[in-house]
Amino acid sequence: MELLIIRHGQSEADLLGVHEGRADFALTKLGELQANTMGAYVAEHLPPDIILASPLLRAKGTAEILQKFVGCNLLIETDLMEFNNGVLAGLSKEVARVKYPLPLAGRPLHIPIEKGESELEFRFRAERIFHKIMQDYQGYNRVAIVSHGGFISQFIKAFLKQPNESEFGFATSDTGLHLLEIKEKARIIRFLNKQEHLKGEID
């Protein structure tokens, strides 16, 4: 099985300087263009058999554009949502620094942000949906997963069986692509954060 993991295109929050997380912003015009360019590339080079997506507008919108190009089924999986950042969702970063400052030593992994989830809960959610996909979609050759930057990093950590306190992270740019392969006795990274579909198309 191959897992084609895709971050959504640019969202309105990217232009507003706010914390996004569970705040439900839609794609910008540029984000829609990025998603269309990605969709055409994926349809030609890496067509999936099924698409799974976060229900948040920016990811769902990206997945719907991809679906237009590849024509396969699109299913919503709530566990693919971005980190639940609680009271920070939609709040300007300047206001958040004053109103909800981080503890000097950082927030412990097991302590959730107010009205949100903890880093441990976030990681467990990534583990849960990873194993669900392995079980429920094992009959598909290639599964596309459209999600969010923070979640994608946690998902790749789950794929690599990294510990909860791993210092490694995996960045994903707008409509960046990651291709992971699962064989009987191996987990293989084919590529990470590929964006060649945007080269020469979007300036």
UniProtKB/TrEMBL annotation:
Database matches in InterPro entries: His_Pase_superF_clade-1 (IPR013078), His_PPase_superfam (IPR029033), PGM_Phosphatase (IPR050275)
Q: What is the active site of this protein?
A: H8 (tele-phosphohistidine intermediate), E82 (proton donor/acceptor)
Per the UniProt entry, the signal peptide is none
Spell out the Gene3D superfamilies in the cross-references.
Phosphoglycerate mutase-like (3.40.50.1240)
What molecular functions are annotated in GO for this chain?
Answer: phosphatase activity
**CDD domains annotated for this entry?**
HP_PGM_like (cd07067)
Binding-site residues, substrate: R58, K93
User: Could you tell me what this protein is called?
Assistant: 2,3-bisphosphoglycerate-dependent phosphoglycerate mutase
Origin species: Psychrobacillus psychrotolerans
